[in-house]
Amino acid sequence: MRSFVSSLATKPLVILTGLSGSGKTQLAIRFGEWLGGSRLHVAAVRPDWTGAEALFGYEDALKLVAEGKLAWNVPAMLAFLFRAAADPRYPYVIILDEMNLAHVERYFADVLSGMESEKPVLPNLIKGEDGYWRQREDADEKIRFPQNVFVIGTVNIDETTYMFSPKVLDRANTFEFRVKTSDLAFTHRKPVACSEGQTGLIRGFLEIATNRDWHMEAGHSKATELGVRLRALHTVMSAYGFEFGHRVFYEAMRFAALNEAAGESSLDSVLDRIVMQKLLPRTHGSRRRIEGLLLALGQYCFDCSTSGVTGQAFEPESVDASAAKLPYSFDKLLRMLRSLRANQFTSFTE
Asked: How far is residue 234's CA from residue 69's CA, in Å, rounded to a whole number?
């Protein structure tokens, strides 16, 4: 939960992937309820979402024309965004359930662009007395995507779904949900609704999340060492053509500061989450292309240096996994490597 909340404050887009029935949607809904149930919108993604119209609506030529303006077909998602834009003091949450049942890049591109560039992307509409939405008079045609909106996508992988492009994964923190045998207990019950949190905490969360320089002002107690380790990681990934850019580095430093403020004091644990949530989800390909990278990253999980590129070949299957500095990431790398060797191809999603 600490990493989940820190990730949302780092960047308002989080993807929850993993086993069906493992609690992805329930976690997202409970968090939305804590922020305020009336400020939560759950949208079930449909396979026929082929463009931005699914989220942002469209001019409907079959509806009544007034003063030379066409009425708009406004989906529930767009109406929710208008409500969020009119209430900037509070956070709003959108859950895209089964986010990859349609091509994410097709229906979600404008949202990604609006979040990243902060340029106007939403149609600037107002609801008239006749109940129809139309363009506002004497106003800009579009408005910015509300900064107080957080998007949580849930993902299952099967033959009916689509893979994410690196462009989407690069802009999100990705969490993998798994269920251990020891997690299964007959005392477990269905989740119940979460009470709304204190107003001060809710608005404080939004204030931190929208302050792009918060992590620079607050800082991380070991920011210099973290920067050295991230640059070493960049060197390792660059050697195999998988280097990351300024955005990932910036968001990694921001996440670390937020996670420490939330109570995580271990630098290894923070770096473990960064590798798992930001870098491994972008890693996929054939055995010829990425086996060397996975082996080098496996070595990095033990020493957080560039030895995986310059040293002797590393074999993850022959080492003591309990000695890894980044155990969460190493466990995932080991599973990806086994899949790669068995199927000649691997990706983060299983």
From this structure: 52
Q: Are 155 and 17 in contact (CB under 8 A)?
A: yes
Please give the pLDDT value at position 129.
Answer: 82
Q: How does pLDDT run across 51-87, given as a tens digit for each residue? A: 999 999 998 887 777 777 888 999 999 999 999 999 9
Q: Is CATH 1.10.3630.10 correct for 2-57+76-126+138-183? A: no
Amino acid sitting at position 311:
G
Q: How does DSSP classify residue 145?
A: P
Query: The whole model's pTM is what?
Result: 0.93
- Rounded to the nearest 10°, the torsion over CA 98, 102, 104, 110 is -110
Contacts of 287 (CB under 8 A, 6+ apart): 340, 341, 344, 345
Q: Round to whole Å and give the CA distance between 313 and 304.
A: 16
Amino acid present at 303: D
Backbone phi, psi, residue 153, to 5°: -105, 135
For 132, the 3-state DSSP assignment is coil
Nearest Cα neighbor of 33 from 152, 258, 195 is 195
180 with 162: CB under 8 angstroms? no
For residues 76 and 228, give the distance between their C-alpha atoms in angstroms, rounded to a whole number: 46
The domain segmentation of the chain, as residue ranges, is: 2-57+76-126+138-183, 213-346
* DSSP state at residue 142: E
Asked if residues 84 and 149 have their Cβ atoms less than 8 Å apart, the reply is yes
Q: Encode pLDDT of 21-47 as tens digits.
A: 888 999 999 999 999 989 999 999 999
Give Rg (Cα) of the chain: 22
pLDDT tens digits along 222-281? 999 999 999 999 999 999 999 999 999 999 999 999 999 999 999 999 999 999 999 999
Q: Which of 211, 175, 171 is nearest to 28 (CA)?
A: 175
CA distances from 208 to 93, 153, 178, 192, 214 (A): 16, 22, 30, 28, 6
Q: Is the pLDDT of residue 188 over 90?
A: no
